[in-house]
From TrEMBL:
GO biological process: uroporphyrinogen III biosynthetic process
Protein name listed in UniProt: Uroporphyrinogen-III synthase
InterPro entries in the record: 4pyrrol_syn_uPrphyn_synt_sf, 4pyrrol_synth_uPrphyn_synth, UROS/Hem4
Molecular function GO labels: uroporphyrinogen-III synthase activity
């Protein structure tokens, strides 16, 4: 069956001429964006209940833009003035760049990984005498605490925000040829919103091994996978699939 409509379970990209824009133009398909999950901040009192005192830390490990936003939100709610001496360990350049929303870059000690968390750990190891805070969501990949424990550094995880399933009830009678997922939480949201979901001719596209596992465990048929050596991005995987079925 040909592909004419695609629903991506993420917010619409804010950049002009995104890979999805090129896919739409080239393949003449309709692509809608709808976050299946969203993030909600945890209140400062809940952070205190985790026995976290921001005064006790000399370094912050930031793995995402959400972790940046919610660290500074909690600091403000707790009336904690972040000292100039605070060190920031950012998982990627994108996270480090986003940090400029809150701090004057040239006046801060900022250490940047390449992309994956294990590429940041050598920098953390260099400063193993610091007291590290990891602001995170309630869902955290096991690889992160495992890597920090292996370094034998003094670190504490704080749950500063939570991943929440979005209400998708308005989509109950809306059908798409392809549903695109990037996390196990997206699969969970689909099944929570539509417990009677029947895949039938709907194609499922998934990104990453953990999403593949979640979809498989849920009994879904996976038609499109990324990343692969041939299709390292989701848009490339979609392009390849659409080209093959829309002949």
């Amino acid at each position: 069956m040909k592909v004419k409509t695609i629903l991506v379970s993420q917010p619409e990209p804010k950049i002009e001429n995104s890979p999805y824009s090129r896919l739409i133009e080239k393949e003449k398909v309709k692509v809608d964006f709808r976050p299946f999950i969203h993030v909600e901040g945890v209140q400062a009192k809940n952070v205190r209940q985790q026995k976290i005192d921001l005064n006790n830390f000399t370094a912050i490990i930031l793995t995402s833009r959400n972790s940046v936003d919610h660290f500074f939100r909690i600091a403000e709610e707790m009336r904690f003035k972040v000292p100039d001496s605070m060190k920031y360990f950012c998982q990627s350049e994108a996270v480090a760049y986003y940090l400029q929303k809150y701090v004057v870059y040239r006046k801060r000690k900022i250490y940047v990984g390449k992309r994956a968390f294990n590429e940041l750990t050598p920098l953390i190891k260099k400063y193993k005498d610091e007291k590290f805070l990891l602001p995170s969501s309630d869902t955290l990949k096991a690889a992160v605490p495992d890597a920090l424990n292996e370094l034998s550094v003094d670190w504490t995880r704080g749950i500063f925000y939570k991943t929440v399933i979005s209400d998708l009830s308005d989509l109950r009678n809306v059908y798409y040829d392809v549903l695109v997922f990037f996390s196990p939480s997206g699969i969970e949201s689909l099944l929570k919103n539509f417990p009677d979901f029947e895949q039938n001719e709907t194609r499922i596209a998934v990104f990453g091994n953990s999403t593949v596992k979640a979809a498989t465990d849920a009994g879904l048929r996976i038609d499109i996978k990324a990343p692969t050596p041939e299709t390292p991005s989701m848009t490339m995987a979609l392009q390849k699939y659409i080209t093959s079925v829309n002949k």
